[in-house]
Amino acid sequence: MNFDFSEDQKFIQEQARNFLASECDTARVRQTLEGEQAYDQALWQQIVELGWPATAISEDQGGLGLGYLELCVIAEELGRVVAPVPFIASVYLATEAIKLAADKAQQDTWLPQLAAGEWIGCLATQESAGALTTENLNTTVTDGSLSGKKTAVLHGEVADKAVVLAAEDGQPALYLVDLTAAGVTRKALTSIDPTLPLAELSFDQAPCEKLASSADTVAILSTLFDRAAVLLSFEQIGGCDAALNMGKEYTMGRYAFGRQVASFQAIKHKFADMFVATELARSNAYYGAWALSADDVELPLAAATARVSAIDAYYESSKENIQAHGGMGFTWEFDCHLYYRRAQALSLILGGNPQWKELLVERLLRIKAA
Amino acid sequence: MDFKDTPEQAEFRKEVQAWLKANATPKTKDGGRGSQEEAYEKAKAWYKKVYDAGYACPTWPKEYGGAGLTQIHKVIWSQEVAKYDEPDGYFVIGQGNCGPAIMHFATEEQKTSLLPRMASAEDVWCQLFSEPSAGSDVAGLRTKAELKGDKWIVNGQKIWTSGAQHSDYGVVLCRTDTDVSKYRGMTMFFIDMKQPGVDVQPIKQMDGGSHFNEVFFNNAEIPDSQRLGEVGGGWGAALLVLMNERLAISGVQPDGFPEFFELVQSLELNGEPVVNNPVVRDRLATWYTQHAGIKASTNRMLTAVAKGGMPGAEAALGKLVGAVMNQDIANYALQLMADTGAICDESLAPQRAHFQKSVLFAPGIRLAGGTDEVMRNIIAEQVLGLPQEPRADKGMAFKDIPSGNQH
Q1: CA spacing 20 to 30 A to B92: which of A86, A129, B115, B292?
Q2: Which chain A residues are within 8 Å of B296, Cβ to Cβ?
Q3: Chain A with chain B: Cβ pairs closer than 8 A
Q4: What's this model's pTM, rounded to 2 decimal places?
Q5: Domain range holding B160?
Q6: Which residue positions does the secretion signal occupy (chain B) (predicted)?
Q7: Which listed CATH number (1.10.287.70, 2.60.40.10, 3.30.1330.40, 2.40.110.10) goes with A121-214?
């Protein structure tokens, strides 16, 4: 048994951490938070040059031919700095959707482009509140053009292309739509985390191309979301670490009643609980990473476990970090809310905690029955 | 990342599986616990059998009764034996805590005579640290050892000693100097528990059982040759023992999940299995993430240990989470049984009244080996590096420190 990342993977992580520490401090994040830009284009360009979007794309399709474990360690670092870039939308969602649902010819065209950052992708599935369904879709395809409306599309306003869930003759499938084409209208929505912006996409007979292997849409979306859940769990534990460290440093440096605030047991126990939640989430994320990289049958259960655990841990760490800061934690000026907002946003992409808890139990019972 | 055995480990696993198949008792559907005395006799017999086969204390050197293998071999052993109805871990305090203390501090002659008998459970050992006035503040202990010639004369009282009633020897921490600060005035020894000056009294616990004891020392004697470490060096020696305790108990802390998972599938309410209830499913999901998280954390720790590291204070996590969860699960299980949840008859309550017994025993698990609050302090101070609470007894000579119940 070797339940840890390899030295090479740890090296990649260290490089990513150093790069982001120097290029993506919270002042930089705030430029996006405060609406000066929809995403950090300069940072995204650097990330593309570093080859991160190419990490889990095979070499013969223009990628680096590394794997999901390498992508996991990068995800942790992006989460740690609350990176304001469309990495989740383009890499974990659009790229993985194409890997799962496009045929060889389509992949050979699109994956090298995604690896090189030639365009930004996003995933448009949701039509209303509630768990994602592939039935009774209002977004439909007729004679090769797509019409309908999608909401809460992550980075939908800035993406070049979207993978869209739609039905043709009542059969759900995934389609690639050029968002700059005629027939596409985008409306920016106000996101709880402006560094992960959401959009509403309206399609009126927009040209589209069917992802040729997407017939079994339910299974494909399930696997896509499982993969993304594992990757997101690493972003979440990176954020947990950052929130915990922030609270720790503040209370170590602040004095009340003549002593360091961090020396009070009430505060120490709060941090111990944040650490425990984070460690459990980290361990579950590691197991998810193993199942993802080994393409193991346990991926569905491991992904749901990693997801629920990471949602709980990031909520715990980000909310208690605010409390540890006292009144200053409630100000716009202090960075506590960056993590709190990000924790909320990450918990909602792919469906919230109750949905994933239900999936977890279903899968647990299925394994037991098998 | 992988969960595969190396070829050598796979070979060892196969060998262990074959031996267990021929020698261990298979699990039966409802486990069936005997009395405490029967369990003890059964454990003694099992350990001897394991020792004779060469699998006892896998990580100890062969000359001391072990198998000279690694931590990973020990894990493989534990994984395999867990599939059977055998009391692996029954003598964990002796072998896990006292063993390393002897290994580290005793003379070569003592090691070769004592350790093999500990490994085979022919000799049973206990650990005597806690006292009525020294619980979480264990360094506040007052059991006094005074040097008379080449013997130490021991007077005082220990409490919460597991297995003292069966023990041949104990590792004991005593106060040997009250004029210095409390951490500097302690010394560690091993003591013959069968001598006249040692009186063991069982404690009747809130659940009705008697797992723990009080131990009274009344002019008990310890030859100076049984001192473990330097005079005044007891605290450092105790920390070494406690560090080994973490390793010994890691991954064996029951969290109650497997039993709960079985219960929710078998128990019916209003004609439906309770597992169909969304409220129950929500709890099931939360507890599963914790259960899986502890298991995966243990695997991370074992990976680090296999690479030559020592288990860090992170190991406190499994105990903290598992013990609380174990209590909450037991409570919730009773709630699901509604009015019949109060019935404790083994013949009537599910899983031979496992949850009824657990709900009454669980408070003790949260206290044993360090309270929840002590675990949180360990994590906060030793893992996160947060400052210690200011101490009112800092710099004081031990004899001037108030302690225990003062009203």
Answers
A1: B292
A2: 3, 283-284, 286-287
A3: 150
A4: 0.94
A5: 125-233
A6: none
A7: 2.40.110.10
